[in-house]
Design brief:
Blueprint: H1 2-19, E1 26-32, E2 42-51, E3 55-58, E4 72-75, E5 81-89, E6 93-97, E7 102-108, E8 110-119, E9 125-136, E10 142-152, H2 163-183, H3 191-206, H4 214-222, H5 229-257, H6 260-268, H7 270-287, H8 297-307, H9 311-325, H10 327-340, H11 347-369, H12 382-410, H13 417-435, H14 452-468, H15 494-501, H16 536-546, E11 550-555, H17 560-570, H18 573-581, E12 584-589, E13 602-603, E14 610-611, H19 614-626, E15 633-637, H20 654-672
Parallel strand pairs: 11-12
Antiparallel strand pairs: 1-2, 2-8, 3-7, 3-9, 4-9, 5-8, 6-7, 9-10, 11-15, 13-14
InterPro entries: Cyt_c_assmbl_TM_dom, DsbDN, Thioredoxin-like_sf
Domain Thiol:disulfide interchange protein DsbD N-terminal: 39-149
Main location: membrane
């Protein structure tokens, strides 16, 4: 009996590994939202998707040149209807991807798209198919799919109403946006990380010349105000809470203004990005000492007069006075947090402002409770101005990112990658010289003796400058990939120039290894100067001619993790040399939409659908041959098309990837050696 149980378990595991590879973590439903439609009416087609946990669906409203595969619907023309406007995604969330270096929109758990159509005849017939991509948060898989939909009626009563369900979906979608902001794995950093940065920014704001002198004013205001120790503590706590409330309300206003539709405009249009750049630039000049930014004195005096009335209202207005007076120093920092959190989010700016104001409020609250601590503080002086100047240099550097976004979207060509790097190198080199006391700006005191702290900061700064210098010659600078413009805008890419102009002594170059001109080579390419094929039959014929195994790369234009594998693993010299020398390279793009001649079409044995495009045929080949539909997916084949070793998927370990290649090469050698 025990052996029978073991046998059944083994069979179950075998079946699981065999049949669970073809994954479809999404299901669709379609309906017409209106109960009854007549000729001349506009009907709303609704396409709703349920998405499995830990998977997300790319939406349809981001830059199609960014990289990920958009969700698209292809409607078959018919005289009975006419499309009205374009496809509308309902409340997608937004993320930023460092690989693609851009913003994209996506759905989790639930998705909905709507398309309006004008009914011209009854009965009508609407047939459409969609193409889309879903990706996994867990293992990096990205899978393209397509589905078919049809709408038609014989009588008006056959149309089912789903209006209440639609309203429910919209409400759930709005709620989900808030939830996603707390778990968005595609953000540059998590919410916790963002709050830590905001908290540190609040601590940094305490050291600015506008804020630091307010500490003695706070102590003076609270000294002797309360009749008891408990009353003093109560007033101090209310004072700190008031500071937090004032800042958080500002974050709430920003969050309300930045709705989902406004987010896409805010992140890509040149007007807000140039505006943010100018804001950073102006505040940077202020921090560097060119001028001071102050609120109108009459307004500040009126608020301050309210504080003199005493009571809890006076405590609140004292906090308001602190915020206003310190505006010229905290304004740029607060603005940086709000700009960083911009993009239609609600939770992120609220938590960011809360973390900032918490760090800002705690010291003032403590000094209000313990006025005697004032005697232990260092006196105000030139060191406070140095803090402001350092912040000015950082504002100047970080502001370039917004100008860079506008430059990339509108192809102005004024801030390419190399120009961007030159500016950063100069800015941080000048910051290093300033820390060493070699530069003096308005408000600075002479530095008679360099402190250890300034020395260590200058070492860090100059180390950062040296790290950036190789980027001028084409080094990838992966640590800065989210800030720098794409490599395609770099004028002097030394590695590419070397690959393109290197001769071929000794080992054959990749181009010499090609047996014939690759099909589709005019539009499909390998990275890192690798040469290969994009058609299975071509690669198989060349493998037989050269007596080499085939490296099959199931990839896609919109596959983020494919690009990451190419950038981090394929670029390693140990991997790259093997790919170029030991294998016939074959890349099969599963999302390539180029339609083949009708003579090359066929009906799939897997789903019974006609496969017309390069991508759909490649995806069908992966499913029917290898029982897998995820990308990236790497396969090593013999010259007869048989597997050499077990295929692998997303693998970030270079050593494991090298072992995979070497094992396949050894198996090929053993199999083909007489």
């Amino acid at each position: 009996m025990r052996y029978l149980v073991y046998s059944l378990l083994l069979v179950g595991l075998f079946l699981q590994n065999t049949f669970a590879q073809v994954i479809k973590p999404i299901s669709w439903e379609s309906s017409i939202l209106e109960e009854n439609v007549e000729v001349g009416d506009t009907a709303t087609l609704s396409f709703r998707a349920e998405i499995d946990e830990n998977w997300y669906l790319y939406s349809s409203d981001f830059d199609p040149d960014l990289g990920p595969m958009l969700t698209e619907f292809d409607f078959k023309e018919d005289d009975s209807y006419q499309l009205v406007d374009s496809l509308i995604p309902i409340n997608p969330s937004e993320g930023y991807d460092e690989i693609w270096e851009g913003n994209y929109t996506y759905f989790k758990e639930k998705a909905e798209f709507q398309q309006k159509v004008l009914i011209k005849e009854i009965p009508f017939k609407i047939v459409t198919s969609n193409s889309y991509q879903v990706c996994s948060d867990v293992d990096g898989k990205c899978i393209p799919f397509s589905d078919d939909f049809s709408f038609g009626e014989k009588t008006k009563s056959s149309i089912k109403s789903t209006s209440s369900e639609q309203d429910k979906s919209k409400k759930e979608g709005k709620k989900k946006i808030i939830d996603l902001q707390q778990t968005d794995s595609n953000s540059p950093y998590s919410l916790l990380g963002f709050m830590v940065v905001a908290f540190l920014a609040g601590l940094a704001a305490l050291l600015t010349p506008c804020v630091f002198p307010m500490i003695p004013m706070t102590v003076t205001f609270f000294t002797g105000k309360a009749k008891s120790r408990a009353g003093a503590i109560r007033q101090a706590v209310i004072y700190g809470i008031s500071i937090i409330v004032i800042y958080v309300v500002a974050g709430t206003i920003i969050a309300v203004i930045n709705g989902p539709e406004f987010a896409n405009w805010l992140s890509t249009h040149w007007i807000p990005n140039v505006f943010f750049f100018l804001v950073f630039f102006i505040f940077a000049l202020s921090f560097l000492g060119l001028f001071e930014i102050n609120l109108p004195s009459s307004f500040v005096n009126k608020v301050d007069a309210k504080a003199d009335k005493g009571g809890l209202g006076g405590v609140f207005f004292m906090a308001f006075t602190l915020v206003l007076v310190s505006f010229s120093c905290t304004g740029p920092i607060v603005g940086s947090i709000l700009v960083e959190s911009a993009g239609g989010m609600v939770i992120k700016p609220l938590l960011g402002m809360f973390a900032f104001s918490l760090a800002f409020a705690i010291p003032f609250t403590l000094f209000a409770i313990f006025p005697e601590w004032l005697n232990n503080l260092p006196k105000s002086g030139g060191w406070l101005n140095s803090v402001k100047v350092v912040l000015g240099f950082l504002e100047l550097a970080l502001g370039l990112k917004f100008l860079s976004i506008a430059d990339q979207v509108y192809h102005w060509g004024i801030l390419d990658r190399d120009i961007y790097l030159v500016l950063w190198i100069v800015i941080f080199a000048m910051l290093g010289l300033y820390l060493l006391g070699k530069l003096r700006l308005p408000g600075d005191s002479p530095i008679e003796r360099l402190s250890v702290g300034r020395l260590m900061l200058s070492i860090v700064t100059f180390s950062f400058v040296l790290y950036m210098i190789p980027g001028l010659f084409g080094a990838p600078l992966k640590a800065l990939s989210g800030y720098l413009p794409p490599m395609s805008s770099h004028d002097f890419d030394l590695p590419t120039l070397i690959r393109e102009n290197s001769g071929g002594s000794g080992a054959l170059s990749s181009e010499d290894q090609l047996c014939e001109e690759p099909k589709h080579g005019d539009m499909l390419h390998f990275p890192h100067g690798i040469k290969g094929y994009f058609d299975y039959e071509q690669a198989l014929a060349c493998a037989k001619e050269q007596d080499k195994p085939i490296f099959v790369d199931f990839t896609g234009h919109g596959c983020v993790n494919c690009r990451e594998m190419e950038a981090r693993v394929w670029s390693d010299p140990k991997v790259l040399s093997r790919l170029k020398s030991d294998f016939v390279m074959l890349a099969l793009y599963v999302d390539e939409k180029t339609e083949l001649p009708e003579s090359d079409w066929y009906t799939s044995e897997y789903d019974g659908k006609v496969k017309k495009s390069i991508g759909k045929q490649n995806a069908d080949f992966q499913i029917t041959r290898f029982n897998n539909n995820a990308q990236p997916y790497y396969v090593l084949l013999d010259t007869d098309g048989e597997l050499l070793v077990e295929p692998i998927a997303y693998e970030r370990s270079i050593s494991n990837f090298v072992d995979f290649l070497d094992e396949g090469k050894e198996k090929f050698k053993a199999k083909n050696t007489p």
